[in-house]
């Protein structure tokens, strides 16, 4: 197997997404990493959609960008763009490398702050919980007038994977 492991991305909800139809939008998310592409379902007529969906991608190389894009589903025309954001998994990987498996549940291992280069809208915590390292983040969408998407990422080791 030539990949490092899996990344589970829980796409919780969109906040104040852009209007692309008359008064609302029909948003869905697309995650891309290299040649992989996975999607959420469409939530009709809601700029604050709740998807609560888990998508999984495999990671071959930590330097291949992971992009989340939001689109408005249209029936007769091409789906409209509602912005995108990069998901930076390196802080989470750094925490995993520390080997902190003995920590009590709920320990905050690190905090990632919004910067000019990342797409994080608010302080994002990396937490050790129930045997897993997870990071909640609110992504600030770019190339659009407004909108944020709340996600949680989690690394999954796989038997036979190379690890990092
Ligand atoms: Ca539409």
From TrEMBL:
InterPro entries listed in its UniProt record: C2_dom, C2_domain_sf, CAR1-11
GO function term, MF aspect, one: lipid binding
Keyword hit for Nucleotide-binding: no
Domain C2 positions: 1-103
Top-level taxonomic group: Eukaryota
One BP term from GO: abscisic acid-activated signaling pathway
Recorded GO CC terms: nucleus; plasma membrane
UniProt keyword list: Abscisic acid signaling pathway, Calcium, Cell membrane, GTPase activation, Lipid-binding, Membrane, Metal-binding, Nucleus
Entry's family note: Belongs to the plant CAR protein family.
Listed name of the protein: Protein C2-DOMAIN ABA-RELATED 7
Taxonomic source organism: Castilleja foliolosa
Gene assigned in the entry: CAR7_1
């Amino acid at each position: 197997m030539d990949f490092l492991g899996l990344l589970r991305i829980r796409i919780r909800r969109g906040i104040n997404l852009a209007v692309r139809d008359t008064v609302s939008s029909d948003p869905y998310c697309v995650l891309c990493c290299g040649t992989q592409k996975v999607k959420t379902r469409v939530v009709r007529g809601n700029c604050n959609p709740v998807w609560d969906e888990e998508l999984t991608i495999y990671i071959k190389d930590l330097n291949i960008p992971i992009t989340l894009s939001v689109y408005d589903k249209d029936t007769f025309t091409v789906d409209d763009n509602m912005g995108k954001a990069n998901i930076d998994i390196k802080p989470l990987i750094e925490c995993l490398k520390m080997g902190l498996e003995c920590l009590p549940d709920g320990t905050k291992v690190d905090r990632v702050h919004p910067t000019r280069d990342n797409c994080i809208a608010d302080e994002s915590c990396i937490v050790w919980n129930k045997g897993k390292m997870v990071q909640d983040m609110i992504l600030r969408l770019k190339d659009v007038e407004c909108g944020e998407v709340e996600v949680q990422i989690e690394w999954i080791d796989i038997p036979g994977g190379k690890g990092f």
